[in-house]
């Protein structure tokens, strides 16, 4: 964990760890796992709100809890950039991490795989594998997506690849 | 197109007959010649060969299988035509998978199942197989287009799906299990699965499916720097599965940044991919047609032209539960395997007629018995793997099935309701 900023570290220690090693094909065990996922997501979201660091919304898109959709945002130069966030729980979960997708950014950066899957290979996958099955969705957002946004969004904005929504509409009117 | 050209030829003919100006005649004749050439070209472009009922060994230019059937005459393969009865599934139709599919198609494999969710892009053109005009097509459809032209005898099934999603996985397993074409001895509908994917997640999914189905498969991979690769044969329960050994970064704790440069997209070479596809299909043919030695693992380091081979036993503490089940089944059949191996040895021993190698012994050379050596060679002791005094094994021997200590059940059952939790998160999201 060296190299991580103190804020991420302290947030991470407060997200409840999970115990059930079960994937979406494991029936009742998956339900138990899903409950743990919810608990850690609730704790993490609540913690972000109380620290005035709210930065995502995520909820299950199907009753089985295998597909998740929501939003995430990042503030750069006092402007808020918001993106759709989606991912599937892979059949081999939790041995393999969910592949977080930002479909609106597909093709705009090379630190991304097909379909807007953000590149987690270097900074997150080894951590996930070492902490299986204790890490869940909340950890993937905290250690996978948050650092990716912090590294990529400023570059994408400064290079003009993405525009703020007010900026885009005003330039459209003129 | 041929009809149009014929009409054109008629029109020119009429023009020739009606035209009175003799100056036009050479031009019209030239025109006719050009139309004839075009007609021939159009004919050859459309010539797709008909299906062949039986593979023939006849050596004529028009026989697509003469060179393959010659493998029998050369004493390499006993019955090459068996290949038409085999089904092979290829997961990932990229730089390795597409070339492997073409090789198997040209070899006259019975049936190919192709899985990929991606489309062909110009960025794929540094590899073999796909053509620029196929850009935008799904890889599976583009592959079927080319492969059915090359060899119409092969039954091709194309599955455009992502096997790591729940739905994709179900279709994947169902298609492997479909026994309409043929039933294999392990109860699935395919003889071999070839994994030609480019990421860890998809390999773990193929591993999961094959462990559950007790399906033998081969894994292949090319390194990110494009200069090395490997193939590996995985027989559930008998050899290590893909989850038996954790990835290097997890096992050793080394910083992955030392292995991989950040922010650089993966490199690829048509050469390395072609070599790996060739090794993979060669191993496949040896496995299916029963010739030579099937490699359990074969590496390829192109910088030093080094080809390491090794075999890996399954991990009795593997994290994949179907793998443990297969290991147990394999252990339980050990007596049968030993008996079969013994019977084979005896049958082979019978074939060797005992006779003195040298009739004369001019120098009176004789072999002296060595009791100690004899004991070591006793068949009962060969498999005992006894360690020298003072050494102990850290891990249990894989030759006997060990039941793992079951971790103590968590007594704190989740009391709260899933719906309640969902409502709580929604409230936070609002």
Automatic annotation (TrEMBL), chain A:
By sequence similarity, the record places it as follows: Belongs to the ubiquitin-conjugating enzyme family. UFC1 subfamily.
- GO CC field: cytoplasm
Task: Write the record's keywords in alphabetical order, separated by commas.
Answer: Ubl conjugation pathway
User: Organism, per UniProt?
Assistant: Papaver atlanticum
- Function of this protein? E2-like enzyme which forms an intermediate with UFM1 via a thioester linkage.
Residues annotated as catalytic: 119 (glycyl thioester intermediate)
Q: Name it.
A: Ubiquitin-fold modifier-conjugating enzyme 1
What Gene3D superfamilies does this protein's entry cite? Ubiquitin Conjugating Enzyme
UniProtKB/TrEMBL annotation, chain B:
GO annotation (BP), single? protein ufmylation
- Give the residues annotated as coiled coil: 28-55
Mark the transmembrane ranges: none
Per UniProt, residues of the THIF-type NAD/FAD binding fold domain are 65-319
Among the GO molecular function terms of this UniProt record, one is:
ATP binding
Task: Kindly provide the name given to this protein in its UniProt entry.
Answer: Ubiquitin-like modifier-activating enzyme 5
Q: Which GO terms describe its cellular component?
A: cytosol
UniProt keyword annotation of Nucleotide-binding present? yes
